[in-house]
Give the backbone structure.
Amino acid sequence: MSFLRPFFVFCLSARAARTVFCSSFVRLLFVFCSSFLRLFFVFCSSFLRPFFVLSSSFLRLLLVSLLSACRATTARVTHTCLCGSHIC
């Protein structure tokens, strides 16, 4: 049975080396993926921020123009006489 002892020691040390390799590989993969995701989010946010600013500015301009058109129409309607021929 003593002749099997070096084999078991070799298997245990190989398993430990494999565990260390796998854990370092997983750690490296996690660091790489987290760095990639961070760069991806930074790129997307830097690309999408001007898009959101432009679209919100466009929507604000559209709403302001619509509201002013509605106010102008309402003002014309309230100041028009019942006969509709002249402004009171």
